[in-house]
Design brief:
By secondary structure, the protein is of the alpha+beta class. The protein has 19 helices and 13 strands. The chain binds a DNA duplex through strand 3, helix 11, helix 14, strand 9 and strand 10.
Length: 415
Amino acid sequence: MTARMEVDEDTAADAAAPRGTASILHADLDSFYASVEQRDRPELRGRPVIVGGGVVLAASYEAKRRGVYTPMPEHRARQLCPEVVVVPPRFDAYTEASRAVFDIFHDTTPLVEGLSIDEAFLDVGGLGRVSGTPVEIGASLRRRVLDDVGLAITVGIARTKFLAKVASGVAKPDGLLLVDPDHETEFLHPLPVGRLWGVGPVTEGKLNARGLVTVADVAALGEEHLVAMLGVASGRHLHALAHHRDPRRVDTGRRRGSIGSQTALGRGPKSADTIEALLLGIVDRVTRRMRNAGRIGRTVTLRFRYDDFSRATRARSLPHPTAATDPIRSTALAILGAESDHIAQAGLTLIGMSVGGLRDVDDGVEQLLLPFGPRDTSELDATVDRLRDRFGHAALTRASLLGRRHGFEVPKLPD
DNA sequence: TCTGGGGTCCTAGGACCC
DNA sequence: TCTGGGGTCCTAGGACCC
């Protein structure tokens, strides 16, 4: 490896460049769903546990040691490990546990970027005088999550988000690992390429087929070769990561760009009525979640999977963003109608719908209300009707607040 | 290995506009 | 009548993440 480093100009340049300090934490709860079950049911501790519903959603470390992983079919897990305990998921309990852990994150630093229900980046740079070194902060975070929430959490600490994420992956389970900024290459280069964030089975297969097995192998390659192999974005990204270049800051302002729901149907024939009923249930669920979140969206996407596991997505954009059930339902039904022949022929095994192009409902309300002022309310009634149609009844409360802020009364308020 | 449910990002072609 | 280049939006598909 040393010889490789010497011939690699990029790495040499990196080594000469001034390093930042390792102050980014990646905190990742271990086997999250399964750990919550073991926490709440002491008789499950020390035993192989999977949370499942057809496939393995999460496996305890006792089960992982037996070769069980996500998303393995449940029956396969039982073959590998006959004494495994299968627990149905309790998503409310996981959401609540996640909220408690994120409270501790936010109490640690204001710079928190959530990645999923069970992991986040924390920037603890500049907290030194108050809270200690990043390693001390990481250790105390782990203690607090265990004491207050009863869950094990692994923390990776590094100069960049990418390295912190890789570090927590290496440190699992129940660990803490600092990647010293002066020894990043030694840490990174021996790892298999599949450890890189963004390298999945397909990319790993392409790289392996060209004899590229470790990160060092990838790092020795010019960017143009990776771009030719993987495309512009992936190639550049991978090249940068292999040289531990990752300028992304911890971003506290990230918001979801789409909200969706899907359901697997199993094999066997389903009537068109059954499929339509399932879709209507999905539409209700998604639009309710949108309204609860105060988001509106424009692009309705249906997702289908067929008996042979081929997939298709069909999208249609609405003229205006909305969270109202009616326009989203009719758009979804129109897409379904256009696909009905293929569905009848190919056999549907999954149906899903999501709404993308999300914005805040306040933005939509504001856009419709903004042309009005205190002296121009002649068309306000019609506008309020349109507000209700597009965004649903709840938007009227927001419209009322916004109207007052702009100095006029919005009529037809909800009671 | 015969596959859940929630998402993100990237690519690419075509329509449309200037 | 035929032509260029750039930008944006829409749609479909694919890879990836937990």
